[in-house]
Design brief:
globular, about 50% helix, mainly alpha, single chain, 5 helices
Length: about 150
């Protein structure tokens, strides 16, 4: 029993992405980012799409794959302090609906960015590199793995 907390989860980080309206809020946030970038006068449409994709993937990498632990004190005796948010998501169970959503969303954004940049080689390389930096850490084989000791502690 968790006395003095407003939720019944031992680690609320595990279920936050399944909250009501979270996926819609996420999609609206990405849409707003794109609209803000389009409203900057000297950005062309291809540049705005590439920046939307790169900024989104950078943010996703930082918040899901680089930051470890929880933003609040949990009664789980610090078990989550060495796990990234992606590793904590849905208690580490693979292929849940929220994991699928957060895997497919950068792919859809990549396809949109590639289409609107007309597959220009420079934009294509930037978008592909950006996509791979967020898709590779999501692979089930890399759950808990720290490549080259990066983010080990």
């Amino acid at each position: 029993m968790n006395v003095g907390v407003a939720h019944s989860e031992v680690n609320p980080n595990t279920r936050v992405m399944n909250s009501r309206g979270m996926w819609l809020t996420y999609a609206l946030g990405v849409g707003m980012l794109h609209i803000v970038l389009l409203s900057i006068p000297f950005f062309t449409v291809p540049v705005a799409w590439t920046l939307t994709n790169v900024i989104h993937n950078l943010g996703m990498y930082v918040f899901l794959h680089a930051v470890k632990g929880t933003p609040f004190e949990t009664p789980d005796q610090g078990k989550a302090r060495l796990l990234t948010h992606w590793e904590q998501l849905d208690y580490g169970v693979q292929f849940t609906s929220s994991r699928k959503f957060f895997t497919i969303s950068p792919i859809i954004l990549y396809f949109l960015a590639s289409f609107y940049t007309k597959y220009d080689p420079t934009h294509f390389i930037l978008n592909t590199t950006s996509l791979l930096t967020v898709l590779i850490p999501k692979l089930p084989q890399l759950h808990g793995v720290r490549i080259f000791g990066i983010n080990k502690y």
